[in-house]
Write a structure and sequence with these properties.
148 residues, alpha/beta, five-stranded mixed beta sheet, 33% helix
Length: 148
Amino acid sequence: MARILVHWKPPPEGLIKLNVEDSFLEDGFRLGASGVLRGHEGNWIAGFTHFGNGGDALLAKLRAIQLGIATCYDLGYTHFICESDCLEAIDLILNVTNASLHVYAFVLLEISDALHHGTINLVHITREQNICADFMAKKDAHSASSAY
């Protein structure tokens, strides 16, 4: 059986890449969200982690994207690639017809607004391509703090 090695790929020169990930622990209703910003040579620019309570796995995924975009904007980046291994969240963000009726309207509307203030390409990737952000999110769901 052949094994295909899949790994993170750097963005084109002149862009940064944001990889976001989440973790949700059902037994304690705790969520973690994290992200990693890297340049075209793979250099670390910044990262963030966030701890929260309540919600569900979808909220954790949306929060990771929301906080990642906000972190990029806070650092002055408005043109970037945002990668997530959650196709459900990306499809919901890009194809929601009436976000105000969704249970997570507050997050969807904030993300939608942010997408109109810059050039952000939301991309679905495999979990293996997102291993750094995945590690951070799982670690943060088990902690009780957030950091940049």
